[in-house]
Amino acid sequence: MSRREGAEVVSAFLVVATFAVAGFADGRLPDTILTHFGLNGAADAYTPKGSIWQLPWVNAGMYLFLSLIQRIPPDLYNLPVDRPTMNRPAVYAVAVEMLAVIKVFPILTVLLMEWAVVESATASQSVPEITLLILVPTLILAFVVLWYIAVLRRAAKS
Predict the structure, then answer these.
(1) What one-character-per-residue DSSP string does the chain give?
(2) Cα(131)–Cα(42) distance, integer angstroms
(3) What is the rounded CA–CA span in Å between residue 15 and residue 108?
(4) Radius of gyration (Cα) for the chain, nearest Å?
(5) Rounded to an integer, what distance in angstroms lies between the CA atom of residue 55 and that of residue 20?
(6) CB-based contact 113:23 (threshold 8 Å)
(7) What is the reported pTM?
(8) Tens-digit pLDDT profile for residues 33-77
């Protein structure tokens, strides 16, 4: 299985997992759940428990949207390489793979947000590590993007 195919499988699994978290939690949630946490980790917004299904649908929509973006022809990509001298097949292969891999991170972030909402609602406490849950995938994404930029530049010269 290629890296691109693996990333697609992981992305699809994360979307299904977001629905699973909502499904397993739906019967255990109180009538009102915490949905927003301030910078200090304290809950500061509440909503009816039916809203637990919003994030799974947001994740599914994001998955579909990002999958559609991957269908854009690579000739239209804005790549950080010199187009006249680049090795087009190698650069385009890396760019298409990069889009599939990058898609994992926002989907993972929404899954972690869903889990944090469920955890805080069922444990009757705030989840102060929510910032960390969102920060870690974002930092990993930044390193992945930088790595792919380096790979793109190497592929352009090959």
Answers:
(1) --HHHHHHHHHHHHHHHHHHHHHHHHTTS-SEEEEEE-TTS-EEEEEEGGGGGHHHHHHHHHHHHHHHHTTS-GGG---SS-GGGS-HHHHHHHHHHHHHHHHHHHHHHHHHHHHHHHHHHHHTS--TTHHHHHHHHHHHHHHHHHHHHHHHHHHHH-
(2) 11
(3) 8
(4) 19
(5) 12
(6) no
(7) 0.84
(8) 877 777 776 778 888 988 899 999 999 999 999 999 989 988 888
